[in-house]
Amino acid sequence: MFDTLSERLGGVFDRLRGRGALTEEDVNEALREVRVALIEADVALPVARSFVKKVKERAVGREVLKSVTPGQQVVKIVHDVLVETLGGGEGDHELNLNRPAPVPILMVGLQGSGKTTSTAKIALRLQKAEKKKVLMASLDTRRPAAMEQLAVLGEQAGVKTLPIVKGQSAVQIAKRAMEAAKLQGFDVVMLDTAGRLSIDEQLMAEVQEIHRTTDPAETLLVLDALTGQDAVQTAERFKERVPVTGVVLTRLDGDGRGGAALSMREVTGAPIKFAGVGEKIDALDVFDPERMAGRILG
Ligand code: GDP
């Protein structure tokens, strides 16, 4: 088991009790512990480094409060910087549907990341909580099973899916979905793109082409939290090719430490909007930076 960051820092700072202010030396020693804890929580090294720098700027010269130990004080600063970094601006975690209907939302990511499940989860949420009429369409022309899966999820969730027509390209299906949605008065169209086991040029070119033709209001990248640094690399690659506007982090019900979330936020520059917390169709939370900071700190 890992020591929690609070425990690590407790030891470092016990001897500082009763001092006036945090010196650079005190802080440096604590920050070494912070860096180790972040890396153990699966935060990428460069991200951990730049994070620690931010904490340092805020901690050096701080008065040591009487009511808490210096360790607790640094933990609090680390917590605050984590929440700020994960959090982004106000309203950042909501979907931007500020467009004339039907509003396209593009779902991208690798196969197995939870993309199709998340598509249905978000569609259900929009229908239930926001009373939107949602149409879902699978653009995975290479895997008929993926199209079927979306249709089955749609039935479970009571969300309409675009009828499957064999022989159409992904772009053709996307256009058909938008036209059908316009004619039938849907508010939102969720486009579930094809995944791959790993990133390849063909996949990226297809995603780019779909993005260009549909001009989505949101491009949500689905990433599996349990894959840690691999998910961060996936994020890097997708971001090079399409303007990702938000991340859906799945499998947060698993026992990953969640540090990858911090790296993803830094790498994509896009806010994490939703957290997948189980296999069930309603197992989706709006991303909560406070809760994630707590998880990373241990
Ligand atoms: P896709 O290939 O990216 O479309 O992935 P799927 O949506 O088919 O999901 C792959 C598997 O992961 C399925 O068995 C899902 O039920 C499961 N899954 C998706 N999201 C979550 C999640 O947040 N938590 C857990 N535990 N399982 C999930």
UniProtKB/TrEMBL annotation:
Its EC number is 3.6.5.4. The keyword Nucleotide-binding applies. It is found in: Cell inner membrane; Cytoplasm. It catalyses: GTP + H2O = GDP + phosphate + H(+). This is Signal recognition particle protein. The lineage of its organism: Bacteria, Pseudomonadati, Pseudomonadota, Alphaproteobacteria, Parvularculales. It comes from the Bacteria. Transmembrane segments: none annotated. Residues 271-284 form the SRP54-type proteins GTP-binding domain. Its main location: membrane. Belongs to the GTP-binding SRP family. SRP54 subfamily. GTP binds at residues 109-116, 192-196, 250-253. Involved in targeting and insertion of nascent membrane proteins into the cytoplasmic membrane. Binds to the hydrophobic signal sequence of the ribosome-nascent chain (RNC) as it emerges from the ribosomes. The SRP-RNC complex is then targeted to the cytoplasmic membrane where it interacts with the SRP receptor FtsY. Interaction with FtsY leads to the transfer of the RNC complex to the Sec translocase for insertion into the membrane, the hydrolysis of GTP by both Ffh and FtsY, and the dissociation of the SRP-FtsY complex into the individual components. Part of the signal recognition particle protein translocation system, which is composed of SRP and FtsY. SRP is a ribonucleoprotein composed of Ffh and a 4.5S RNA molecule. It is a peripheral membrane protein. Composed of three domains: the N-terminal N domain, which is responsible for interactions with the ribosome, the central G domain, which binds GTP, and the C-terminal M domain, which binds the RNA and the signal sequence of the RNC. Keywords: Cytoplasm, GTP-binding, Hydrolase, Nucleotide-binding, Ribonucleoprotein, RNA-binding, Signal recognition particle.
